Amino acid sequence: MREALRFLGALLLGLLLVGGTVTLGIVLLLQGEESLARELLRLGQAKATLLLFVGFLFLLVLGSLLYPVFLGYLAATRALGQEAEVILSNPGHRLRPRGPFELKALADLINRLAQEKEALEREVATRVAEAKALLEEERKKLTLLIAHLPQGVVLANPKGQVLLYNLAARKLLGEGLGVGKSLLGLLDRGLWVHALNLPEERFLTNGPRGALWLQVVPLEGEKGHLVLLEGAKEEGAPDGRLLHRLRDKLAGLKALVEVLDLEVQSPYLQALLHTAKATAEEVTQLIASWRPKAQAAEVLAEDLLSLLVQTLEREVGITPGFSLEEEAKGLLVLADTYALARGLAEVLQEVEEAFLEGKREDGFLHLTLTLPEEGRGVRLPPLLEEAAGRSGGSAWGEASRLHLLLPAREAPRLPIQEGPPPRAVVFDLTLFQLPETLEEAPLEGLLYTAFDLETTGLDPEKDAIIALGGVHVLGQRVLRQEVFEALVDPGRPIPKVSSEVHGLTWEMLKGKPRLEEILPSFRAFLADSVLLAHNGAFDMAFLRRVGIHQPPLVDTLLLSHLLFPDLKDHRLEALAERFGVPVIGRHTALGDALMTAEVFARMVPLLKDKGYRTLGEALRACAQLPLAKLTY
Amino acid sequence: MRILVVDDEESILVPLEFLLKKAGHEVTLARTGEEALKALDYGGFDLVVLDLMLPGLDGFAVLEKAKALPERPKILVLTARGREADRAKALALGAEAFMTKPFATQDLMAQVERLVQG
Predict the structure, then answer these.
(1) Do B85 and A388 touch (CB under 8 A)?
(2) Is A439 exposed, middle or buried (0-12, 13-18, 19+ CB in 10 A)?
(3) Which string of b and e fits A223-262 if b means at least 16 CB within 10 Å?
(4) Chain B: nearest CA to A370, how far in angstroms?
(5) What is the spatial distance between Cα B79 and Cα B90, in angstroms, rounded to a whole number?
(6) How far apart are the C-alpha atoms of A197 and A186, rounded to whole Å?
(7) Spatial contact of A420 and A503, defined as CB atoms under 8 Å apart
(8) N or C end of chain A: which has fewer CB within 10 A?
(9) Minimal Cβ distance to A364: which of B80, B81, B88
(10) Phi, psi of A264 (to 5 degrees)
């Protein structure tokens, strides 16, 4: 019905067009012919019925002739559309061109598009399969790695639900451990929160299967936690008691002999006294050298105080005021922080306020907890006494005060470490899949060592190396934590011209190791990597003289000529500026090596765009450059 | 002078008793913390030689209790637990002197005399 209406519409439109044109023609023809027009109008009026009849007949014939053609065209177009739809579910399907030639052309076009789509899809599928296989392989390796760790390892999401664990963890935590289950049901919840604040510390706790050490390390970006577990054996304590008993007995023996000696002067007793003294001495030394396995960790005094206060807030809901004297700040305190906090919580159970004060006392941090004076003395919970004793300290109560003496030492002043936080050593497991030859390896799939040397001069025959610097580059990633830096005593004065370049004088280098001492470790640093340097031919000439020859060499100077043939400045600092690499420590060996590394990392995508995908392609292109023919 | 010697080790008690008596003191012996407290309750002691590791109530507890006595004797702690933290605790709890075992009998006697006289 809709089609019939559409057809009638089209027909009417055609008719209106034809009728309009005819009427316009007649009107134009009769312009100025008044009588003829009148005659024609009269004729028309007289024969109107006949004219209408003929018109209707014409319309009928035209309609019945055109209607099937119209329908057929519509049907063919629709069929084409429907057939094209098949391709969506079966990418291999192709349309059979038929009908009017426009439709045939359209079908051809659709077929071509379908072909391209199919090829594209196949490529994507292959890539996905490759990536999947790689991931699977990496997963297997990681799983194997985790499974073989002697420590229990659990990976949990921020809510504490288990994502992954190894067999050792299962042994320590028992059947309650399972993927998707919560770890908090298996461990002390308070300790969990406490441990999260101290990711470098291990805590002794009671697991479902006995005592264990717990360490919780938050993952980067707060994506979850890594939980490290180790079984804890009850060591040390009984041995300690036994040793003290022994010392007690020996002391008694010694005193006894001393007294006897006073009374009965006898050479036999002298010998006995001598032996008793010597044995007592040895046992004393033995005890002095015996250290119970530390059941505590070192915390900065200021951290310890705020940690204790936080835990008290959480456990008993009171916030004690606290102060730490200036001299005690920066002390490293040995403490079982969680046990201490719980012990203190027990003391504060029925108290509304308290004050915690930290003071330095030779070799100790003296913490005093002052409670409101209400007559009754403080009861010292055994837990607190044990906790203090475990780390070699002591605890006692005195009226409304509670004292804790914890071993402490001055924190060593460590230089602040720059650079990113520590990461896993293995960066890219695809590295395990080495191609047959280095040449065919893609540029971004290789490990490079960017390096630089400082020398006493420009002549490899006569001059000597005075500084070496290097950094590893994995594909496009500069591994800033894997660096090599060494200064060398050349054993001779350094010309002023050279000193002005790198700022190194012989006086500064006297006492540094000789090159022979440095080379083995530098060689080890270079091993299994592709050498990378700016104007590397110069550095290689020096290295060859000392027996390091490790082709191939990737030279950022040559690569720069390859990428920017029409630019004039190819110096390292110019490249750095072009690529937006900050210029730091220019003309120190490590500074230049780092800059070379960063520049190279940014060159790789450009090289790929220019069609140099593999190491071989890039090296061959470099070798063609006139500059490459230079030798030093 | 009246001296109470508290130690669970017979080999300490015997020579100490002998030496102290020889020096002219009146000596009472106790082998546990409880015995020591009982003896202290009777009072009249000038000095207590106290071991820290005792069966039952330990030396620290005795120190604390002794503090509350009306006529508190002086206390010399003599112990194999010679850690600095223990010494600080003992002194904080009111001990007058702290000696570690093993000890030379002369040193101990000198210390005793100093405390008794001072």
Answers:
(1) yes
(2) middle
(3) ebbebbbebbeeeeeeebeeebebbbbbbbbbbbbbbbbe
(4) 16
(5) 11
(6) 19
(7) no
(8) N
(9) B88
(10) -115, 105
What is the Cα–Cα distance from A608 to A510, expressed in whole angstroms? 46
Give Cα A491 to chain centroid, integer Å.
44
Q: Which residues, other chains included, contact A107 with Cβ-Cβ below 8 Å and sequence gap of 6+? A: A80, A95, A96, A97, A98
How many angstroms away from the CA of A391 is the closest CA of chain B? 10
Rounded to whole angstroms, the Cα distance separating A35 from A254 reads: 162
Q: What is the mean pLDDT of residues A464-493?
A: 90
**Which residues of A are tagged catalytic?**
587
pLDDT at A237 over 80: no
CA separation for the pair A42, A22 (Å, rounded): 18
Q: How far is B44 from chain A (nearest CA, A)?
A: 25
Contact B88 A394 (CB under 8 A): yes
Provide, as residue numbers in chain A, all residues whose Cβ is less than 8 Å from the Cβ of B16: 255
**A244:B81 CB<8 A:** yes
Tokens of A465: 């190396």
Interchain contact B80–A (C-beta under 8 A): yes
Whether residue A409 lies within 8 A of chain B, CB to CB, comes out as no
- Other CB atoms closer than 10 Å to residue A180's CB: what's the count? 8
For residue A281, the SS3 value is helix
A258 Cβ under 8 Å from any chain B Cβ: yes
- pLDDT tens readout for residues B34-53: 999 999 988 889 999 999 98
Helix or strand run (H / E) with residue B26: strand B26-30
Q: Does A334 touch chain B (CB under 8 A)?
A: no
B101 contacts A248? CB cut-off 8 A = yes
The Cα-based distances of A503 to A169, A345, A589 in angstroms read: 55, 60, 11
CB–CB of A403 and B89 under 8 A? Answer: yes
Using a CB–CB cutoff of 8 Å, tell me whether A387 touches chain B: no
Structure tokens at A441: 């390896």
- At a CB cut-off of 8 Å and minimum separation 6, what does A583 contact? A573, A576, A577, A595
Element (H, E) at A520: helix A515-526
Q: Which two tokens stand for residue A472?
A: 């590893």
pLDDT tens readout for residues A341-369: 888 888 888 788 889 999 998 889 999 99
β-strands A447-455, A401-410: how paired?
A: unpaired
- DSSP result, B33-74: HHHHHHHHHH---SEEEE-S--SSS-HHHHHHHHHTSSSPPE
What Rg do the C-alpha atoms of chain B give, in angstroms? 13
Which residue type occupies A348? L
At A229, list the tokens.
Answer: 């577990």
d(CA B114, CA A276): 27
Question: Which two three-digit tokens encode residue A41?
Answer: 């109008």
Using omega within 30 degrees of 0 as the cis cutoff, is the peptide bond preceding A626 cis?
A: no
Confidence of residue A294 (pLDDT cuts 50, 70, 90): low
Residues with Cβ within 8 Å of A276's Cβ and at least 6 positions away in sequence, in order, are: A250, A253, A254, A257
Q: Please spell the DSSP secondary structure of A433-459, one letter per residue.
A: S--SSGGGSBGGGSEEEEEEEEESSS-
Cβ atoms B113, B23 nearer than 8 A? yes
pTM of the model: 0.52
Q: Is the dihedral of CA A345, A350, A353, A354 positive or negative?
A: negative
Angle in degrees, 0-180, between the axes of helices B10-22 and A237-263, rounded to the nearest 10: 30
ipTM of the complex: 0.89
Asked if residue A355 lies in contact with residue A433, where contact means CB atoms within 8 angstroms, the answer is no
Q: What is the pLDDT of residues A452-465, one digit of tens each?
A: 999 998 888 888 99
pLDDT at A61 over 90: yes
